[in-house]
Amino acid sequence: MGNCSPTSHSQSNTLDSTDLEELMANFTLNYTYDDDYTYDNSLAQPCHSTYCMQFGVSIPPFLAVASILGLICNLILGVALVRCPRLWDQPHPSRTKLVLISAAGTLFASTLPFFAVASSRGWIFGDPFCQVAQGLKYGCLFAQSLMMASTLCHVQRGFANKIVLVLFLMGFVCAIPAAMSSSSTENICIPSQNLKLLSWSLGHTSVSLALFDIFPVMAILARVAQKWRGKNQWPQMDITWLFPLFWAPYGMAQLLHILLQEKVLVATCPFQKHLDYFLGISEGLGTVHCFLCPLLILGFSFCPQKSVPALHSG
Question: 143 in a domain, yes or no?
Fold first, then answer.
């Protein structure tokens, strides 16, 4: 989604003099004027992605609306935590965890306006702020994913809150590769594929795949295995287990993208086009978590306990 620069979705389909010269040059290069007058069609044709041309115009308003809704919904959740403490008894997560979820959602939503401006005008805030914005963005995401780990084993309530806080801070530590690999050299602020930053980029992709996909799958398998063995206590599920549903597709898309960049996968034009759509749409799906998650938390808080037996927290 954030990979679209302003020029990529504002290109015209008309040919100017430069385009005509390039077209004629390609035309003459593809023909061999020998005695047989043969056409050489072995040269690879350029592959043009249509994702940014189709969705690029709608990205800035989408990010702006998501930011506003995210800030409002997390503000409502924060007020509810302060004014209605009786709502946060079982089967809901601890109050500390909900406060941190609200804080992470607010921070994530606050970064979206900068990416909205970048999608329409290019990244005008400089490289240092690009790294800060990406670090905050992914730090919030990784923190929310890691907070699932607090449900994996039984600990006392006071110590559990400390574990949740440590996991929250670890999320921002895990976002260091995302910040270090980010660059605005191409007028957009994204983790760069520059060779000098390749190690950071690979580290970021690995962390994303681990926290968005591998860790949630392992937690679910552990839950199923324990239930199959007749032990239905740990790991226990709560509202934080819904978070990977939003970002798991994007983790897979990032993996496919890095494999394509490293030429592990065959780079056919249809595959590249479909991957562009997969990357953009999956990131859009993940973005809506910033306002859907607080709404879901508020919704479950008003449900009778017997109606949500699966979402039980220790």
Answer: yes
Cite the DSSP H helix spans in 91-189: 95-121, 127-146, 157-174, 176-181
CATH of the domain at 69: 1.20.1070.10
How far does Cα 249 stand from its chain's mean position? 9
d(CA 312, CA 164) in angstroms, rounded, equals 16
Residue 13's DSSP bridge partners are none
Say which residue, 79 or 185, is predicted with more confidence.
79
Please report whether residue 19 resides in a domain.
no
DSSP secondary structure letters along 276-302: HHHHHHHHHHHHTHHHHHHHHHHHHHT
CB 161 within 8 A of CB 94: yes
At 83 the pLDDT is 84
Number of domains in the chain: 1
Domain containing 265 equals 50-303
Inside any domain, residue 138? yes
Q: How confident is the model at residue 33 (pLDDT cuts 50, 70, 90)?
A: very low
- pTM, full prediction: 0.81
Condensed to tens digits (0 to 9), the pLDDT of residues 91-110 reads 557 788 889 999 999 999 99
